[in-house]
Amino acid sequence: MIIENVGLAFGEILNVTTLMLMLVGVAAGLIAGAIPGFTIAMAVVLTLPFTFSMPATQGLATMIAVLVGGLSGGLMAGILTGIPGTPSSVATTFDGFPMARGGKPGLALGLGVWSSFFGGIISAVLLVTLAPQLAKVGLEFQPWDFFMLVMFALTITASLSGKHLIKGLIAGALGLFVRTVGEDEAVGMPRFDFGSEMLLSGFDFIAVLIGLFAFSQLLNDVRDPVLARKSLSEKGTIQARIEHWAAVKEIMGRKLLLLRSSLIGTFTGILPGAGGSVANILAYDQARKASKEPERFGKGTPEGIIAPESSNNATEGGALIILMALGIPGDVTAAVMLGALLIHDIIPSPTFIAEEPVLAYSIFISFFLANFIMLGMQSGMLRVFILVTKIRMYMLASVILGFCGIGVFALNNVDTDLWTLLWFGILGFIMRHFGFPLAPMILGVVLGNYAELNLSRAMAITTDISPFFTRPWSLFFMIIAVFSAMFPWFQAVRGKSKWTLFYLPAACFALTLPLAMMAVQNDSLPRGVIAVIVAAFGAYTLWKRAKGGWKLDAYDGHDLKEG
Amino acid sequence: MARMNRDVYAAIFLLVFTGVMFWASFDIREPDYGVLPPSVWPRVILGVLGLLSFVFLVHALRQDPDAIERADGEPTTLGGWIAYWRNPIVCFILFTGYLTLIPLIGMLSAGILFVFSLLTALGGWQPRQLFLHACIAGVAVGGMWSIFTFGLNVLLPTGEWTGF
User: Fold this and answer.
1) Interface of A with B in 465-484 (CB under 8 A)
2) How confident is the model at residue A234 (pLDDT cuts 50, 70, 90)?
3) What total of structural domains would you count in chain B?
4) What is the ipTM of this complex?
């Protein structure tokens, strides 16, 4: 059955049209990724209107190609010009640019390209193996659990996406509220329409996404009249040839680093709200801490390129795992992918892989294939990347704003979507200016209906709210939502306040309860073992800190910022 | 008034918005069927939003006004403010004009006009630039319009005045 489905999926992907679209997608992603100020999410958002009239498999393959290309495009600009093309490539510039300036631009590019490739492939393997397993776990979920999962996704996104948790939570709540405007999905009653036809039909969430994310970003990019007229980059090494063989040799000599960074990337991607922008910094940080020569970091060491590049490409595999297994987008780009699926009337859920096996395997195959296409195209398009960074931002912004209009109209063929684009563009711009992160709002918009539907289903089963606290998965998500909400506070005073010593043990002990409940209810030995391990780890951490006299350790932390 | 900062204004706006929307939630009709009335979920969200906005207000009032992050050169006078935000304001105005013109002159003409106007407003209007901007606008919007119209078979709006 699986072989038959894989064969059918290959048939869907391996045809001239889809392959051509993937080639164009990877090229577009690479170019978009190379442009400083043009995020990967924006590239994927803008691809969505093109995929509307395509079959679901083709559309998703194109978007995955753009995504994989975008993740890799950022490294070119970062290494050659010192300006990261995307937030996912920030850490790559720390060592990539010094190495390029030190006379080894070809090796720096090679390390970046091949690390991206290996990171992508490792996460693709994890995607194929973990997503179906996680989906099996997801089959245990009931409406209470799904509702709490959405709450957890919003809370952790808010806590990871900016300095101020409160602003992130407000943004998430605003996103949820936006989706309540118009007819409600359960009984079809109009809400907050104020007598307006436009409001009665609700806001198309793709128009909202493009407005909030792309439109507002472009306005931000042209805010400064002087910078808007300048080329995106006027410095950097122009002449370079990628040294493939030398790069592969360097990477193969550091297999553990590659694997660790790819795993960091994949698991960061699984975590809702934490994308490549977080993963590349985390992996770089870990590589530096684990290195025997940490003083070489920042001066052009190969480890400083391998770690961030393998991790940022691995994040999307992680984000796709949680999207395909549970229907929860791991980051903004996965939220757009979810939008693409919804456009084609496909609703990701734990039964998605079982019910739509051909489409699911097509996504797996596309992800693998896109990484190979990316590897082949990086070398050939080097000159294009350099040329792209010479474009003036005002030209790019004007053309893309014009495209936004056409693209958004094409979604539903209604002009009210264009006004939605404008209003949410303005809202997104103001929110950015006031320091509100947009990622929680976008997740709120995407998941708003899903949360309400599950709340409605839960209430239809019983009006008793106790299952939110007594069902193991619901309790599990509630506990990690509470601890993730406290995370920014913990991070801010870590090493300064005594209570931070108890944060990790307390989280472990709290999680032991739902894990033990799962073990008992399902008569599952592995979950019982996990519960014991988690409790033991909490106890060990507590014991270690007690043994150390409850001393506070100095913490050399890093900021986690929205990508 | 020394405590007033932009976060305080944002929090007050959010509280007013929440209040108005909560009030508007009483206009939602309650059907005789269904277990979860359609007003409950929005009210839950608005309740949480109101609470968060209140916490945000308290936090903003306790904050040192100088601690609020401001971009370099951000002005405090109205004239300076308009000059500082000139480009985004121009974008908003031109995009509004674009949307208003679409039913009259169609998406192709309105799109070209919008992109050309925006390029010129943001990039300058030297004769050479005007020519370059016209070419960029024509090729970019024309190309995109052709892809959607002929490649993806999307019926883009035609103009009442122009017919295309």
Assistant:
1) none
2) low
3) 2
4) 0.93
Residue B14 structural domain: 6-69
User: Range of A358's domain?
Assistant: 2-459
Which of A429, A459, A489 terminates a domain? The answer is: A459
Residue A554 Cα distances to A264, A496, A544, B159, angstroms? 23, 8, 16, 66
Amino acid sitting at position B90: V
Nearest CA in chain A to B116: A398
What pLDDT, in 10s, does the model give residues A255-264?
999 999 999 9
Take residue B97 and report the two structure tokens written for it.
Answer: 């004009």
My answer on whether A127 and A159 are in the same domain is yes
Q: Which of B24, B41, B56 sits opposite A170 (nearest CB)?
A: B56
Question: In angstroms, rounded to a whole number, what is the distance separating the alpha carbons of residues A5 and A133?
Answer: 17
| B107 touches A: beta carbon within 8 Å | yes
User: Do B65 and B86 belong together in one domain?
Assistant: no
Note the pTM of the prediction, 2 decimals. 0.86
Q: Are residues B146 and B89 in the same domain?
A: yes
Same domain, A478 and A441: no
Which residues does A359 contact at the CB level (< 8 Å), separation at least 6? A9, A56, A57, A60, A346
Distances (CA, A) of B87 to A7, A161, A355, A488, B77: 53, 27, 49, 35, 17
Regarding whether A353 and A249 lie in a shared domain, the answer is yes
Residues A406 and A527 in one domain: no
B103 shares contact with chain A (CB less than 8 Å): yes
Residue-wise pLDDT for A396-434, tens only, equals 899 999 988 998 898 888 889 999 999 999 999 999 999
Burial, A548: exposed, middle or buried (Cβ in 10 Å; 0-12, 13-18, 19+)?
exposed
CB of B69 within 8 Å of any CB in chain A?
yes
Same domain, A300 and A392: yes
First to last CA, chain A: 40
Q: Residue A560 domain-assigned? A: no
Give the per-residue SS3 of A138-189. HCCCCHHHHHHHHHHHHHHHHHHCCCCHHHHHHHHHHHHHHCCCEECCCCCC
> Is there a single domain that holds both residue A52 and residue A144?
yes
